[in-house]
Amino acid sequence: MNPSRRPLIAGNWKMYKGGRTGVELAQGVVEISRTLGSGVDLVIAPPFTVLAAIASTIEDSSVKLAAQNFYPKNEGAFTGEISPLMLKDCGCEWVIVGHSERRQYFGESDSFVGEKVASALASDLIPIVCVGETLDQRQAHETLRVVQQQLHAFLDILARSPRAVAIAYEPVWAIGTGKVAGPGEAEEVHAAIRTWLAEKSDALAVRTRILYGGSVKPDNAATLFACPNVDGALVGGACLEAASFGAIAKAANH
Ligand code: PEP
User: For ligand 1, atom 6, which residue shows the shortest CA distance?
Assistant: First the structure.
């Protein structure tokens, strides 16, 4: 296996477990990480309010910390926002960028996603950049066009950076719905993404992990991870219990 594409399982906690229950969940993930060895990387993305506490919880483990969002300025009069430097200060190494909920509910455009990818990399945060089509777009056979357009906003930025980032293909119709993409549907898009990365640079295609996201559960994970271009998962609902997050990580640990 290509070591820079070791499976990565990232948990997006969304707006759940922001206090003591978050620390308990992180403790459970640490326990699971100790049973896994070095065959899989684990990243958790709790809410902002509990990041600093969880940084201490995971300190002596291989589990890494991500934020779910940030504002792409280092500091300034941006009431209510969190900067990439603040995330670094509280122990984050990763950050989710361009999640469909940010695009849908907070109006984040492709160009803003590109700006955030550049800002994350400039601050030494590793982005997990999300792309994916809606149900209408899939039914109109526009999936590859839509995903390519979303990628276009940040591929040059990735190609200029030596960092090994992750891209998450998350079909919007599969997020939180229980409708998972079939392995053939996922692999078609993942392989296309790998090809577009390779058109920029072979090294970029080799080092980038392409995660699948959208209703990944313990009982469907292994089938998805068997696809040659699926390098792990971005998990929402199933990451809120350490046991199910751990079962998905075990399925990737081959
Ligand atoms: C997500 O929010 O990124 C996600 C994939 O959610 P779920 O696993 O619940 O579909």
Answer: 236
217, with CB counted inside 10 A (0-12, 13-18, 19+), is middle
Q: Among this protein's residues, is 99 annotated catalytic?
A: yes
> Residue 175 and residue 204: Cα distance in Å, rounded?
27
Dist. CA 81–CA 198, nearest whole Å: 35
Rounded Cα distance, 206 and 132, in Å: 21
**Residue 216, ligand 1, Cβ within 6 A:** yes
The pLDDT tens digits of the residues spanning 100-143 come to 999 999 999 999 999 999 999 999 999 999 999 999 999 999 99
DSSP element (H, E) containing 115: helix 110-122
**What is the distance between the alpha carbons of residues 127 and 188, in angstroms, rounded to a whole number?**
23
The pLDDT tens digits of the residues spanning 76-99 come to: 999 999 999 999 999 999 999 999
170 is known as an active-site residue: yes
Model confidence, pTM: 0.97
